[in-house]
Specification:
CATH topology of the largest domain: TIM Barrel
Radius of gyration: 22 Å
Structural class: alpha/beta
Number of strands: 17
Helix content: 25-40%
CATH superfamily of the largest domain: Metal-dependent hydrolases
Shape: globular
Number of helices: 15
Number of domains: 2
CATH class of the largest domain: Alpha Beta
């Protein structure tokens, strides 16, 4: 059996840094052995860097990458500056993308994720049908393209085919939502099954369950999907992102979105609530007490003016969170973590957001939270960062970058999280393969060329 061995300056485990490490992997990229305090051997692939666990991107709408930066013109009454006007621009893009274009956009995005250190993505996917709103012969045609994109880029993907049924609370879907719609539970189940079948063609693909939002699916159907569909799959849903959404929900249900979910769905550890920006204290404690996770997307939430999640109260109650890049206005995991932390510091006037009673090191805490909860969003419950029998996926930091070179292991994680930028990134190793090195994806030129062709044909930029 062919094996490959990497030698790194250090490797981060939950127990701390291992130094001078050899990591031997098999032909499938799984770790056979981890040995510390070892000199490099002639046959080793030497990287003078520090390996952190590959970042988990727990929320992505791949096609929206094509419109990043295009919804920032707010001049005049014809260009309102809220989430809902941004959504209209997003709908126009969604209506025009064909499967081949979707694959090219997603491949570009996923290669950029890899270049910034992500090795897995949860794709919250709702552009299902053709431009007329009719199902493709392969119900999961669009999802299959996203899986192919992840395979080309070299990252793992959890495909979340999204149940999207309504145009708002109690409203029929609108014409510009026609590509998203599964009109009933049976249609969604067929889509889910087709999506699961598509995952069989890529070793690092799996499937999860997704509801677009409380406004997007009938409440009785949300209950059925949550309580009766496969209970061994992660369950994702947008919730409580916008104040108007909460007002509309109260008018329709007589309940706030998270309040209704806690009472009727009884979420647990397999649930991942995306955004959950606007919560009462009772809702915050309820999510934490149920072991439900929250997926936070700070760059998008900031760009859309959503608001700030009550992170300190959530963490104090034992709550767990991961990060995602959502609309991809930002792609760097370090940027997401810093925006998340600094937003909390600005409203609390304190600096201890990323700490707990057990872990006072902000950098280590942020990495642990984003890794552990992020993995669970993709149905991976492995708690150790690197382990024999598990895939070797790592974000490798250049040991010779100015600040890194002069930093002790004790302060290294916080230096990376709070003072790091793309220049410190030496390589991304995903499932044992070096897919990005020194700022360039291994297939970068080819991927960019195809992406540029598609963007010119779409003529949206």
């Amino acid at each position: 059996m062919k094996t490959t061995t990497y030698h790194l300056r250090g490797l981060l485990q939950r127990s701390g840094w291992l130094e001078n490490v050899r990591i031997t992997i098999d032909h499938k990229g799984k770790i056979i052995e981890i040995s510390e305090r070892q000199e490099a051997q002639e046959e080793d692939i030497e990287m003078d860097g520090w390996g952190l666990p590959g970042f988990q991107n727990a929320h992505s709408h791949a096609f929206q990458y094509a419109m990043a930066g295009l919804a920032e013109s707010h001049k005049g009454a014809a260009n309102p500056d809220d989430f809902w006007s941004w959504r209209d621009a997003m709908y126009q893009l969604a209506l025009g993308v064909d499967p081949e274009q979707m694959e090219a956009i997603a491949t570009m995005l996923y290669s950029e994720m890899a270049r910034h250190g992500y090795t897995n993505v949860a794709e919250f996917h709702y552009v299902h049908h053709d431009k007329d709103g009719q199902p493709y012969e392969n119900l999961a045609e669009m999802g299959s393209r996203l899986i192919a994109a992840a395979q080309t880029a070299g990252i793992g993907i959890t495909l979340l085919p999204i149940f999207y049924q309504k145009g708002g609370f109690g409203k029929d879907p609108e014409e510009h939502q026609r590509r998203f719609i599964s009109s009933n539970i049976d249609e969604y189940l067929r889509l889910l099954d087709a999506s699961a079948a598509s995952c069989a063609f890529y070793d690092y693909a799996n499937v999860g369950i997704g509801i677009h939002s409380m406004r997007g699916v009938e409440p009785s159907d949300i209950e059925i999907v949550a309580k009766t569909f496969q209970q061994d799959l992660p369950f994702h849903i947008h919730v409580a992102e916008q104040l108007k959404e909460i007002e509309d929900c109260e008018a329709y249900f007589g309940k706030r979105p998270v309040e209704w979910l806690l009472e009727n769905v009884e979420p647990n550890e397999r649930f991942h609530l995306v955004h959950a920006t606007h919560l009462t204290d009772e809702e915050t404690r309820g999510i934490a007490d149920s072991n439900t996770h929250v997926v936070l997307c700070p760059s998008t939430e900031g760009n859309l003016g959503d608001g700030l999640f009550p992170l300190r109260n959530f963490q104090d109650a034992g709550g767990k969170w991961s990060i995602g890049t959502d609309s991809h206005i930002g792609i760097s995991p370090l940027e997401e973590l810093r925006i998340l932390d600094y937003g909390q510091r600005l409203i609390s006037h304190k600096r201890n957001t990323f700490t707990s009673e057990d872990e006072g090191n902000s950098g280590l805490f942020a990495i642990e939270m984003a890794t552990s909860s992020g993995r669970k969003a993709m149905n991976n419950f492995e708690s150790e960062y690197f382990k024999e029998g598990e895939p070797f996926s790592a974000y490798v930091v250049d040991a010779n970058a100015p600040l890194i070179a002069s930093t002790s292991p004790e302060n290294l994680a916080s230096t990376v999280v709070f003072a790091g930028d793309p220049s410190i990134h030496l390589a991304t190793i995903s499932y044992g393969d070096v897919i990005s090195e020194k700022g360039e994806h291994k297939y970068g030129s080819e991927i960019r060329s195809k992406f540029q062709e598609v963007m010119q044909s779409l003529n949206v930029r």
